[in-house]
Write a structure and sequence with these properties.
The complex is a heterodimer. By secondary structure, chain A is an all-alpha fold. Chain A contains seven helices and no strands. Chain B has a four-stranded antiparallel β-sheet with strand order 1-2-3-4, with no helix packed on it. Classes of the chains: A mainly alpha, B alpha+beta.
Amino acid sequence: MRYGKYLTKRLSCADIYVRIFQVLSMLASLYLIIAPGEMSILTKRGLFPYLFDLGMENLPKWLEYGVAQVYVLSKSEVAVCFILLGFALAFGLAAGALLHGKRCAAKTTRIVLAALIAADLAVRLLPLDINKAFGPAASIPAFVIRAVCLALILADLIYEAIRKKQNAAE
Amino acid sequence: MNNAKFTLNSALIILIIAAALIFFVMITLFDLANFLPMNLYYRVGDTDLGVRYSSLEGNGLFKGPEKTCKKVLEGNFGYEWGLVLDGNSIYTNEYETTSFQMVLCSVVRIDAETYEKEVLFRDTILRGRCASGEIVCVKDAVMDANFPKTNSLFKLYSIAKPRIDPAGGAATVIFLDPATGEIVWEVKETSALNDKQFKAFYLDKTLEEVKK
């Protein structure tokens, strides 16, 4: 109960989006960490391959394409894993600092995040090859998750605007 | 330390460190496992060249008698699916492996006199010669040993290679003129043919019969 109150007091909707992103990236990396020890994971579909597909689809399309290019150039799954985890960590640290910093910076960060997610969702609707790689089983849930995250950030912005109005009225 | 919080960022740092340790151990074990004693030699036609797989001297193209040959070109070249010698040109597969031992294949042409290698097509598998002499390759495909239908890493690979079918089924069968290495005919293949079917559909026929 106390931790629940802590969460609602300390975490804004934008923080929740950042945590969703980090958790999905961590779950995706598990496939890469398990694979060297259990190669049979590559030969059948299951939970960990699906989590990898979902985690990769949850990345912004530009990052997904960048990770794929790094994979082709380096021929190293290890590099892919560290890029996934490294980006999730860097994103979490940067977003945390900005969202809990000055009010102006926090608002700008939310607006930028919302714009980027909206653009990403628009790209996902185009009939591009990059949108077909992991199949609808992963791309549709990822689309829904990112749409929910966009809604969360917009909710934050709306709530801030309402609170500002109320403070001004008082 | 009493007030330290276990945040998601901390969990990520721990996961990164654990991943680094696991990869170091497992990939070192892969390298040790690959170091099995091996010494296989395949002569290239009637030449004094041969494709060799050797644990001691490494893999590549070797010149000279089998017991005393010297390496002239380093690389993992194929022999079992078709190595084509046409005049001074050797057409063969060259294999590269990723850190998780996925095998990637490219078709290369090697000059038998200067030993210069030219990569003709990446993600392409040379399968042999058809009845009329053209070289038959499967373009924009990966090997079945990589389990393309189930392997999620292959799907990631196909994002950067848009011509590769992420489902691992469709590919393009190309016919090369052995004198120039240029494509003279191509066929979009949407079914994954097994070795027997591929031989019957493409390798046992002339190019004219395939075109019909």
